[in-house]
From TrEMBL, chain A:
The keyword Membrane applies. GO terms for biological process: amino acid transport. Pfam families: BPD_transp_2. This is Branched-chain amino acid ABC transporter permease. The lineage of its organism: Bacteria, Bacillati, Actinomycetota, Actinomycetes, Micrococcales. The keyword Membrane applies. It is found in: Cell membrane. It comes from Naasia lichenicola. Keywords: Amino-acid transport, Cell membrane, Membrane, Transmembrane, Transmembrane helix, Transport. It is a multi-pass membrane protein. GO terms for molecular function: transmembrane transporter activity.
From TrEMBL, chain B:
The lineage of its organism: Bacteria, Bacillati, Actinomycetota, Actinomycetes, Micrococcales. Its main location: membrane. CDD domains: TM_PBP1_LivM_like (cd06581). It comes from Naasia lichenicola. This is Branched-chain amino acid ABC transporter permease. It is found in: Cell membrane. Residues 322-345 have a biased composition (Low complexity).
Amino acid sequence: MAYTIQLIVEGFATGSIYGALALAIVLVNRSTGLINFAQGSMGVLATFVAFGLVQLGAPLLLAMLVAFVFAFVFGAGVERFVVRRFEGGDPDTAVVVTIGLFVLIAGIAALIWGYEPRQFPSLFPPQSIEILGVFISLRSVGTIVVLVAVMALLQVLFRFTKLGLAMRAVADNPQSASLSGLPVSRLLMVGWGLAAVLGALAGILVAPQLFISPTMLDFALVYALAAAILGGLDSPLGAVVAAWFIGIVENLAGAYIDFIGDDLKIAVPFIFMLVILIARPQGLFGRKVTVRI
Amino acid sequence: MKNLLARPIVRLLLAVVIAVVIIVAPISSSSFINYQLSLIAVFAVALLGLNIVMGYTGQVSLGQSAFLGLGAYIAAYGVRQEWPVVVIFLLCCIIPAAVGLLVALAAARLRGLALAMVTIALPIIGVPLAKRFPDFTGGSVGSTVSWLEAPEGSGLADDQFRYYLVVAIAVVLFILGRNLVRGRIGRAFAIVKSNEAVALSMGISPYRYKVLAFTIASLFGGASGFLYIAVVQYTSPETLSFATSINLVAAMVIGGSASILGTVLGAIYFVMLPVVAGQIDSSRTALISGAALLLVLFLLPGGLVSLPRRIAQLVRGGRGGSPRSRAAADRPPTGDTAPRTTAAPEAEKQPR
């Protein structure tokens, strides 16, 4: 039983990392209506910036803050100079654009830092704590706490600030927002910048475990996409709940179902995704949309 | 130039010249070049399948490598079991097509991005699955076969024989594919791509045609897997990896979406990129590939195949047009006309 609980908590923590990335995907999708396949590699690039600073002797927290700033500027820049040309056009072309970005940014990271995985310092102490006979690592607890805090912050941003209200208006209807005097293009840049910060956060949280390399977040991105689609692409809460669900179910299935094991556990979220999408194409928490012709 | 190309006699001559070059090329080339040329034919078939579902029907598929890999595994298994070549080839077409049909029956209910996600799952689940059945696949080591040696007395080296076989099959598949997309089914694909509601009102079921397009794409993927084993004689989980799928999508767009000639150009790009990048620095393949893809999307939305038309456009624009009208021509054709740009965001928003 203790082992099961441990597995669940660990799944929760892994799910939190997927959740951060899934939130980024939802944020981008809500503001620009695109799926950003480059979200993971953008996060990796920012993590590498933090890595470079740590190597130069900067404290981890400072390096992390610089990485966040870098990610924000980089994300906003990508929106402004690359993605904007393809917004409102053919959505398939836009998907291919982000795939191109994904390949290109991973290539840039590899060019500077190479492909071999390297160690990255952890934000949390390596100890475990014992609660009622269950050992839980501080890293897991820390990751979960960080994600919950981020979600709360995003809620506050979107519910109680002018910026959040403006971003919601742009997501809802760019034309009306523009007519009522909102700087739509700048708000889109902010949306992409915030999403990139979330990606950087996911990268920094996961790097101590996976070791940092240009392809570090590829699998996490796939899980995050699955979570975003499961939860409904327009629902931040749905995406995070789905990410937790995926993390836990995957961990349990990998441990308890012999055929699945450690290597095939990646199939689990996809099977769930397929079943749920066929029953509810808009996702678990998504709004159903009707198409006007 | 254009008028000249439009004349049937010129086209016929051009086709004859190309055919002669294709036939003569392997005789005077080294076995390395023959190998590369054969690989171009192999991936051209995979790209043709991808182009049918993505370029012509407008459904993003990120899973083409799974069918390529499946076809390759079936071929390798068949060779080890010493089945007749024709049987192997047919199985390489039928089984991936059946798998593709099953996936499509579920996935074609979904729209754009969800479909992309379901197809992403194919290579990602396929790789551990392939490692799980080592008896069939050879596990992570992969499986090597040795077959299709040049028949005695033909006077051909093995690489030349394989080249002719692979190119012949590829040409036949290309003729079939071309007839498909130019015919009734191809027109149905085009209307499903441009507007599903209109398709429905014309009595064309978008669902059925999406399933059909996906199944045909899987069939071509499986066939190219057979050709892959014929040329490379080896396959491993690497063949069906997600990276292969991404590179195939990139190559398709770079060559030219919804274009037969563009498919061939894409295959040339796909095969040549690692060779060329390997001479500079193989760790920069990803960098070059990503940059090439974005450059094409920015400058040549129609892919390499639209290069002559684009140059002609620029030359004309350079003489007559103001810089502004040239900037307008730069934009992808979808966003060009005013009513489209105002209507587009709303139309794009609703299906989400």
